[in-house]
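Sample pair:
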Amino acid sequence: MMACGGGLAMVLALGCGDDSTNGDAGGTGPGTTTSESTGPGTTSGETMVGTSGSETAADTTADGTDSGDSTGVGTTAGTTEGDSTSDASTGGTTMGLGTTGGTDSEGTDTGVGLGGCYDPGDYPYAGTLCGPAANPCVVIADEAVDPTGHFRNGAPAIVLDDDCEPQVLYSVAEGGFIGHFARRTAADTWDDAQTPFPVARGGLGFAAATGETLAMPYDGAFGVEIWRWDGMWTLEDSLAGQQLLRSRSVTHDGNGTLHVGLVTNGSDLLHGQWDGAWATTNLDMQVNSAATALGPGGEANLGYWTSTNGTWEMRWAVPNQPTELVSALGSNLLSVIDHGIAVVPDGGAGTPHVVFATQSVAGGLHEVVYARRVGANNWTVVPVASESQATNTQCGPPPNVAGQQCNYDFIRMRPLDIVASDGGDVRIFYAQDHFMGTLQSVCMPGPGGGFCDWQSIATSDTSDFMIAWPTQGGGIADAVVMSDRRVQSMMSSVDIDGRIHIAAYAGFGSPVVDYLRIGESP
């Protein structure tokens, strides 16, 4: 059967399935909220394709609404409850060794040996980033953190330790919210163990002075905590009230201070800062989700979706300053939620850069766009990648007779993340998904004459993982990072050598957890 509405279509505060808040279709009230989803099913998400050949909720990783993110697998269940690759330990002092695979052209190094990844003289990185033809991106490492596909929520979180080696927090959302914390100890080698706390989504930070990792898990039911890992997990703090977050909502300063964009169960946006104790500031209302980055003075910059003015809007906020409109969607339907933010110092308070998706008036197609603040209440918005009616052949409702066939062929663009160097280089990541296949109508008897539905009989889907950057002429250039690698959702971090570390939920169907390291050719 066709899923609700054909992909995640949030009508202001009204949505579809688990990724929604329930209210009046034309209103802007926050409505009621629900908790995260567990297990495979046709939950709503970003605009993808399922076995119906038109855009359904299958195979998604849409970032959060007030009900949380759902990573559905549509009609392909294909998994069992639990994590078949997890360690039997539930955390503490034992970190189980996970099964990994991939390539690493750097050999078996376990650290960069440059005196610390958070050395104030080098962190944050201020040099050039890979991408353009003069300095193309090379995949230095491609490894499996969890090679088994599972139902998951949102995106995995990543942080670098003092050796610039990655640590990843990820979720298995089957039979509950099972958290995993994985540390890379050598090429293709990960210590991976279940956490003693549930993780529907979460963020990570690092305290360089003590070498400790901080985790901020969201439990899937509006509970947020702080845990510290120094060889074992210790609960540090719990946040009062009911809030949710996503991985890119959380950022850190390398000194043990965490910043987070929190969305309450009443859809208010809070900035939360934790440096041993919580301090929160109310920023806006009727908010869907937020991404957070730090400015040069350590101030939090937040990009977020809100429906306050009767349409979905991308906005920017810094605590204790007026909020600004980045771009109005011009629609009460929010189909592609995922977005990211980065800040470049620019010799002053910092310039925020945001990546998100807009919606065209005709056909409901989308465009990945890049926005940069050029002055107070003044933002430039530049297209990065656009969907086109020329590549939008889909199948309509199934016919009333069995055996008829339809070929579909369409391309979808999705924003994934954005990073920047303190030197001013900005890099945008997005996915280019190409869905191709053949459907055949299948009819079943039932009340009122029965019903017919499309069934997939052939698929040849592909996806390119793309990187883009603004050019001196004001346009956008791009390049393929990896062909036929479907990154469903991701989080990235830049180290002191300008290499970009990526944790991703990847693949068609139930996602695996991948780690990628890209940079200039060694």
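Residues 1-9, 13-35, 40-114 have pLDDT under 50 and may be disordered.
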